[in-house]
Amino acid sequence: MGRVVALLANFCWVELDSPGADGITRLLCTRRTRLGKSGLQICTGDRVRVEGIDWAAGRAAVGSLLPRQSLLERPAVANVTRVVVVVALAEPELDPLQLTRFLLTAEATGQPVELVFSKADLPEPAAVEQWCGRTQTWGYQPVALSTATGLGLDALRERLSQPGLAVLCGPSGVGKSSLLNALRPELELRVGEVSGRLQRGRHTTRHVELFPIAPGALVADSPGFNRPALPSDPAALALLFPELRQQLAAVSCRFSNCLHQGDPGCAIAPGWDREALYRQCLADLLAEAAREEKRTATGPGLRQRGSRLEPRLDPRLRQESRRRQRQQAHGDEPLEELSPPGPAG
Ligand code: GDP
Ligand code: ZN
Predict the structure, then answer these.
(1) Do residues 341 and 306 make contact, with C-beta atoms less than 8 angstroms apart?
(2) Domains of the chain by range and CATH?
(3) Residues with CB under 6 A from ligand 1
């Protein structure tokens, strides 16, 4: 058994869970067509069983694919167990809303999230401290680092050394590539040891590769999503804010579809640090849901709702009704109108 750490055109590299003959830990495997026939495409990060091992040649074939726990898109990485959000403390200037949106996207994977402040060499130390303290109140244990001075690199390496598969994400220009290069060990040389033909294969494919940072701990070698997305369910948004999640685990609001906007019966006391950011995200999410609804319209006068078609409302009336619904968010009315339409009946 092992994990796919790199994809080539018709082959993949599989890192074995335990070394085989001669201490070999990595095999170049062909990908069998029957995996293709089942519709399953092997992806970097996938857990696989290998068969037909030729230890002398370091070759084998992928026999079967183990059930996938998760799949991150763009780049496609399966079974990610940790998401590292990277934002710069300066150049570009740190934008709390953008940071929040990256954190939400990372939280939406359901995996532990690490927060990294890069370019810590640029701002005044007091500003670094302030951002670290502030995001601790959000529920994170940030690492401030600089690839220029080396500050914080060991701290991050240590966090990523727990078994699993980590992927970085964040806006462009914050230093993710620099960071990956700084984390990346000598392994590069080992991968480079392959024949000329395979070298070419390696460089003509644009897939993610995984590199080990500690035994059993891998990091994806290319940045993950750099455009954050919001969830589609407004009621799910709060659970992506650790500071709300923690409170809501202890006390619940009067209504289960509460959007935590300070209405009576809400368990979330107003005045929390990211309140305005939360509301902004909620508004953006509702606007996106409205646009989505428009896109999935089935005809000029009809729209899909669940498995039914319904007459489309005049947009102005609809705005009205949405506003009413928002006001009623604490009533028993489910926010049906905002949920994405189901598959056609
Ligand atoms: P990416 O787009 O997130 O992959 O960012 P890059 O790694 O390409 O870096 C963007 C720019 O930031 C480059 O000019 C880097 O030299 C610079 N940079 C990266 N890390 C640091 C750092 O720790 N300190 C400073 N001052 N500049 C950095
Ligand atoms: Zn509430």
Answers:
(1) yes
(2) 2-68 (2.40.50.140), 72-220 (3.40.50.300), 234-338 (no CATH)
(3) 118-119, 121-122, 146-148, 172-178, 223
Cα–Cα distance list, 225 to 74, 135, 167, 220, 228 (Å) = 6, 21, 9, 12, 7
| For residue 309, pLDDT beyond 70 | no
Q: Is the omega angle on the peptide bond into residue 300 within 30 degrees of 0, that is, cis?
A: no
Q: What percent of the chain has pLDDT over 70?
A: 77
Q: DSSP characters for 59-106?
A: EEEEEEEPPPS-EETTTTEES--EEEEEEESTTTTP-HHHHHHHHHHH
The model's pLDDT over 195-239, given as tens digits with 9 standing for 90+, comes to 444 444 444 345 789 998 988 899 998 888 888 888 888 999 999
Asked if the peptide bond before residue 92 counts as cis, ω within 30 degrees of 0, the response is yes
Phi-psi region of 152 (alpha: psi -120 to 50; beta: other; left: phi over 0): left
Mutate to test the pocket of ligand 1, among 178, 179, 183 (most ligand atoms within 8 A of CB): 178
Neighbours of ion ligand 2 (CB under 5 A): 253, 258, 260, 266
Q: Phi, psi at residue 262, to the nearest 5°? A: 85, 15
Measured distance CA(61)–CA(53) in Å, rounded: 7
Q: Predicted confidence band at 344 (pLDDT cuts at 50, 70, 90)?
A: very low
Atom of ligand 1 nearest to the CA of 223: 4
DSSP character for 341?
A: P
> In the predicted model, is pLDDT for residue 51 greater than 70?
yes
| Mean pLDDT score of the chain | 83
Q: Are 301 and 312 in contact (CB under 8 A)?
A: yes
